[in-house]
Amino acid sequence: MPPSQTRIQRAFNLASERYAALGVDVRQALKTLATIPISLHCWQGDDVGGFENLGHELGGGLAVTGHYPGKARSPDELRADLDKTFSLIPGRHRLNLHACYGEFGNRRVDRDEIEPAHFKNWIAWARQRGLGLDFNPTYFAHPKAADGFTLSHRDKSIRRFWIEHGLRCRAIGAAMGKALGTSCVTNIWIPDGLKDTPADRRAPRERLAESLDAIFRKPISSKHNRDAVEPKLFGLGSESYVVGSHEFYLGYAITRRKLLCLDAGHYHPTETISDKITSVLQFLPEILLHVSRGVRWDSDHVVTFTDDLQAIAREIVANGYLARVHIGLDYFDASINRIAAWVIGARNLLRALLTALLEPPGIHAAEVSGDFTTRLALQEESKALPIGAVWDYHCISQNVPVGEAWLAEAQRHEREVLSQRSGSTD
Ligand code: RNT
Ligand code: ZN
Fold this sequence. Notes:
By secondary structure, this protein is an alpha/beta fold. The chain has two domains: about 1-25 and about 360-420, no CATH class; about 40-355, Divalent-metal-dependent TIM barrel enzymes (TIM Barrel). It has 14 helices and twelve strands. It has helices spanning about 5-20, 25-35, 75-85, 120-130, 155-180, 200-215, 245-255, 275-280, 305-320, 340-355, 360-370, 370-380, 385-395, 405-415, and strands at about 40, 95-100, 130-135, 185-190, 195, 225-230, 240, 260-265, 285-290, 295, 295-300, 325-330. The strands form three sheets. Strands 3-2-1-12-9-8-6-4 form an eight-stranded parallel β-sheet. Helix 5 runs parallel beside helix 6, helix 8 (about 275-280) runs parallel beside helix 9 (about 305-320) and helix 9 packs across helix 10 (about 340-355). It is globular, with a radius of gyration of 22 Å. The N and C termini lie far apart (about 45 Å). The mean pLDDT is about 95. The structure holds L-rhamnitol (RNT) and zinc ion. The site of L-rhamnitol (RNT) has 11 residues, from loops.
């Protein structure tokens, strides 16, 4: 064993003893951690660009800032970047694709024409690597979404177009789930909303419910595809009214037995999704999370190791919800190396889950016995427990770089691969 490995092993042994004294089984925690899949969002790799080559601006209230060179310009480049990324993250994970990332050759294939065949390379790639796929219809960056309305549009033909897109996306999701033997979560987010005070808040919501019902009419086995709907309170250009608000989709998901997607950036700045998890899971069998980080607004910053992130992970783990919560990342940062952005967010999310798995049982026990002093004392003391030693050991056992060593790998990839991509600064 090289000296660094011996050091990591020794630190791990000491840490395990420390945790064991508090009643925590570290090996069991690592076993569980290794089974938790994170759905990595493909759109961090190319600033939500996709491969349709429609030349249409992103829109829909989504904004990617930064001009870091080297973004992926083709599906092959994106897959190469993802391979590098996955090699720096411990565990076996999933990829979350948007419909605009299909491979259409030189043809123009509109959103109401897409088929599973356009995703066959992604499916083959995922199968080879043992990755699951998740999916999203793309309701933005399109002329028929340019006025800010899609499924709730007042024009029936535009609604029809987007319903067809939704139908096709569910079929693609099911094809992915079937081919890979792991159910695909197909998540619907639409940008529909208004910048200024609406005169009618009701009709668009009635139309949205109707459009969604049309998309979901056909039953699909949950073995292959699960439908999720994603609410939002406000967006850029939809500050006054969002058709698919939290209450709208909460009611919709409960009555239609759909997954609700909670995005950490979609609420008021002091409102957290961690507290919502135990509430909505009283009434829904499963949910999807878009783990993100809003800075002042839904800015989709790279996920860092915040209290918010730790609270989300803790609520999933402490309440035994790992089987009912699908965990995905959702952010886009073009101001730093895009692979590093993926890796930082994913490693933080996993570290937060590990922290939750290592929570001393005394915290819960203190609450049960009504001793809130002890609860608070243990909560605070547990923040200084040697989680880093356990995490390092986990990385070594999963054959991924320990600590900041992953960065050198990402930088080598930047020198050898990303920097060779010309004209890739915008
Ligand atoms: C937008 C939603 C949505 C998107 C992706 C690209 O506010 O969070 O999930 O980020 O579909
Ligand atoms: Zn989201």
